[in-house]
C-alpha cells in the first residue's frame, strides 16, 4: 500500500494552460516553480500521480501517440530535475460523453487507488479548477489544494460563492507543496 500520495492536475498546475489546448510538446511550457515543487515532493517520498482531462483526443485534435510523447517528454524533464511521476491517468473523452473518468467524476482517482492500493483519505489533490476540487471531494481525498495559476483565480471565487472552498488556496504548485509539507495528513 502506498503512503504519502499526491494527485496533480496537469494543465494550469504543472504547465501553462491554453484556451486552444496544449496539443504538442512544443506547446508545453512548465510553470515557474513546478519542476522544483515536483522535485521537492519526490525528495520527501511522495508518490506523484497525475490526473488529467485530455478531451483533445476525443475531439480528434491529436492522436493518442502525440499525448503519449508529451507525457514521456514531460516525465523525462521532471526526472532530469530530480522529480518522479509514478503514473499519468488521463481521460480522453469529451464532456458530452459523460464518462466516469472525466473530472469531476472520480473514476481516474479510483483507478489509481485500485492499481496502487491507496487509502484516499490520506492523499492530497492539487488542481486549478472547480472540477479538480470536486473530483478530490467525490473521490474522498484527504485534502484538496487549489492553486491560483491556470483557472485557479476564477475557481476560487466560484468555490467560495458555493460555500465549498478547497482545504488550502496556494499561489502555485511550489507554494502548495510547501503547505503540504508544513501540514501533513495524520
Write up what this structure looks like:
- With 186 residues, the chain is of the alpha/beta class.
- Helices cover 37% and strands 16% of the residues.
- It is built from six helices and six strands; from the N terminus they run βαβαβαβαβαβα.
- A six-stranded parallel sheet has the order 3-2-1-4-5-6, sandwiched between helices.
- Strand 4, helix 4 and strand 5 form a beta-alpha-beta unit.
- Helix 1 packs parallel to helix 6.
- The longest helix is centred in the middle third of the chain and has 17 residues.
- The protein is globular and about 45 Å long.
What is the strand and helix layout of this fold?
Blueprint: E1 5-8, H1 34-43, E2 47-53, H2 64-80, E3 87-91, H3 107-116, E4 123-127, H4 130-139, E5 143-147, H5 152-162, E6 168-170, H6 173-182
Parallel strand pairs: 1-2, 1-4, 2-3, 4-5, 5-6
Helix pairs in contact: 1-6
